[in-house]
Design brief:
elongated; single chain; mainly alpha; 17 helices
Length: 298
């Protein structure tokens, strides 16, 4: 109902504006000047007509999508979008975004992977555009090899949420006990990231390596103090809440909350290896990896 009301009010506003432009010369300057004005400005009504046709066409093309979204009718929305994208090949950006969102809302995360394959075949550029969202099933299913492979493909590309993609690639490496590669990626990312939510997550994930790497120790302690000076816990929590449109933040909320507690903990020796951690995303920085990655024994 709200959507239909907005559509009606918008058209009334456009028509009112059009009427004002049409009749203003006549009302203000008289019939003679009005004829001369429209003789030289005949194109203005055409411009208004083109604008209203273009906007109304957009509304009509997406009418079914908008009405289902407004009603929050997720099952029918999923069926409609799957038919449009998978069967008819209408891979509009708005359709793909709405379908991914619907899959998360309805819990049909596994259906994102067939969507990824469809986009790779029909619209490869949209795989880049939605790389973060398309990769999240691999994170949720804890398929670390596929997670690393997928995010590696995009970590050096100019894509939305590129730094989050780099983090998830590094995190996947750590979960596979590829500590050297994951640590180096996180260390490089710690120099580049500006988002405070991602920064504290990067530092928290690096923290277990402090005893193995002096560079990591200096970097973590320096940036930890900088974050504490710039934010208190409530401010950082508000920053997290404002970014809930980022699906990675929603999925990794337990790990993010652990990282915030770690940042503001009073005991400097606390780290994300604490047995009381609530996060499902855990790894052991001391687990054996390839032989050349083991710390030397003195």
């Amino acid at each position: 109902m709200k959507f239909k009301l907005i559509f009606l009010l918008f058209n009334l506003l456009i028509l009112l504006s059009f009427a004002v432009v049409i009749f203003m010369p006549f009302m203000m300057l008289g019939a003679e000047y009005s004829r001369n004005f429209w003789a030289s400005s005949w194109y203005l009504p055409l411009i208004f007509l083109v604008i209203i046709i273009a906007i109304d066409s957009y509304f009509f093309m997406n009418w079914r999508l908008f009405t289902l979204l407004e009603a929050e009718n997720w099952p029918d929305l999923v069926r409609f979008l799957e038919n449009e994208i998978m069967q008819k090949g209408h891979t509009r950006t708005s359709y793909v975004r709405a379908l991914i969102h619907s899959y998360f809302v309805t819990g049909n995360i596994s259906k994102i992977e067939p969507l990824e394959q469809t986009l790779r075949e029909k619209r490869p550029n949209l795989v880049k555009k939605f790389a973060l969202e398309l990769g999240m099933p691999k994170v949720l299913h804890k398929n670390h090899a596929d997670m690393v492979k997928f995010f590696y493909e995009f970590k050096a590309e100019k894509v939305p949420h590129q730094q989050w993609i780099r983090f998830l690639y590094a995190f996947g490496e750590l979960m596979q006990h590829e500590h050297s590669e994951g640590r180096e990626e996180l260390l490089a990312l710690s120099h580049a990231v500006r988002d405070p939510v991602l920064k504290v997550l990067v530092l928290y994930t690096l923290d277990p390596f402090k005893t193995l790497d002096d560079e990591v120790l200096g970097r973590v302690e320096q940036q930890k103090e900088e974050l504490r000076r710039r934010y208190n816990e409530n401010q950082l929590q508000k920053a997290i809440d404002k970014r809930k449109d980022n699906i990675a933040i929603v999925v990794m909320t337990p790990l993010i909350q652990d990282s915030v507690k770690w940042l503001f903990s009073q005991t400097s020796s606390e780290s994300n290896t604490d047995s009381e951690s609530t996060s499902e995303f855990t790894y052991d920085s001391t687990a054996e990896g390839p032989e050349d990655e083991k710390p030397s024994e003195e």
